[in-house]
Amino acid sequence: VSVGLIEKRVVAKMSCAFCYGSLMFDEVMRAVIGRTCIGKQAILRGARRQAVKGELYPGVVRSSDPSHVVNGVVFENLGAKEVEALDEFEGSEYTRESVDVEVDGKVQPANLYVWKDPTTLEDRDWDPNNFKLEEFMQTDEFIQRSKDAK
C-alpha cells in the first residue's frame, strides 16, 4: 500500500480524521463537534485539494501524480458522536475513506472525506491561507449543516 493513496478499505470506527479544508480551522471544528480539538500537522500523498466550483471550501480527490501532496491536520481521539457530526456536516458530497497520512515523519491511518464528483472541482488548488473563514461561517449552508451535525 502506498502511503497516502486514497483507497477503498473497510472503514473502521473513526478515531482519527485528516482534515484539509474548513475543518482545519478551530472555529469550524468547534461549531461542528462542540469542542476544541488539538490537531497535528499531517501530509497526505497522492491526492489533490481543489476548490469546489461556486463554494468557499475544497474537495480532495485521488491524483495520478504521486508528487501531489495535501497538507492538513489530523485530529485524534474522536468519539462516535463526533464522527457522526462530521459525517452529517460533510454531507452527501463526500465519502469517508481510510487513508495513510504522515505525522511527524511516521505513517498512521486516518479517515478522510473524499469529494465524490471531480467534475464539480475547479482546476486549481485550494489554499487554506486564502480561506474566507468569517464569510464561510455566515453562509446559510454552514449554519444549517453545523446545526444538523449536533
Report on the architecture of this protein.
This protein is α+β, with helices and mostly antiparallel strands and 150 residues long. Helix content is 23%, strand content 37%. The chain is built from four helices and eight strands, in the order βαββββαβββαα. The chain has a five-stranded mixed sheet, with no helix packed on it. A three-stranded antiparallel sheet has the order 4-3-8, with no helix packed on it. A hairpin with a 2-residue loop joins strand 6 and strand 7 (106-115).
Key phrases:
single chain, 150 residues, alpha+beta, five-stranded mixed β-sheet, three-stranded antiparallel β-sheet, 4 helices, 8 strands, 23% helix, 37% strand, globular
Summarize the structure.
The protein is α+β, with helices and mostly antiparallel strands and 150 residues long. The protein is 23% helix and 37% strand. The strands form two sheets. The protein has a five-stranded mixed β-sheet with strand order 2-5-1-7-6, with no helix packed on it. A three-stranded antiparallel β-sheet has the order 4-3-8, with no helix packed on it.
